[in-house]
Amino acid sequence: MEMKNLATELSQNAYPGRGIVIGKSADGKKAVTGYFIMGRSENSRNRVFVEDGEGIRTQAFDPSKLVDPSLIIYAPVRVLGNKTIVTNGDQTDTIYDGMDKQLTFEQSLRVREFEPDGPNYTPRISGVMHIENGTYNYAMSILKSNNGNPEACNRYTFAYENPVAGEGHFIHTYMHDGNPLPSFEGEPKWVEIGNDIDEFTDMLWTNLNEENKVSLFVRFIDIATGEYETRIINKNK
Known about the structure:
This protein is 15% helix and 41% strand. The chain is mostly beta strands. The chain has a single domain (6-234), classed as Inosine monophosphate cyclohydrolase-like (Glutamine Phosphoribosylpyrophosphate, subunit 1, domain 1, 4-Layer Sandwich), CATH 3.60.20. Strand 8 and strand 9 form a beta hairpin. It starts with 5 loop residues before the first helix and ends with a strand.
């Protein structure tokens, strides 16, 4: 697999939709994740990220303009002990509840499928980061329609043990803009991860399409201590 330049992947794609990147900092000390949302409709663009305990949630920037909250208001990030869950929908809660009952990441998602927003049938993308006793691993998942056919759900899970310093993986909902929007294809993209949270945050935000980007969350977690730093950027202010 060829390592992709994350800045280029973002800057050359006007509409990757929602995206998750997970990896390890170049110095090997931090578990790294980023999650962004984009929008084409007024309803999708009318959102901000706000902190919610150790995680975040989306909320309407202007509540008077909120039309349908079902697929846009959710908790993208939740923390369960030494696990950090990052997703593009309310399956965050499904994973949290399942893993809290000793189900695996993959087992927890068995009760979910792609979003019911035909004709796009937006994939559900999810990630979980596990830090324990100075060790770190992560997994990513995508639940998608069968090439646009909602009669079948294709389920893919990718697990990364002992991630390599300076490397990560990036998955997003759509290959590019279109009508209907084409679902992500293949395994998560292999990308480079740096050391500095502010440089990483700025790189992601700067390279997201100016018209379509909405919000960005970035977290660096110290693998030795579990302590973390978070950055949130909202276009709506």
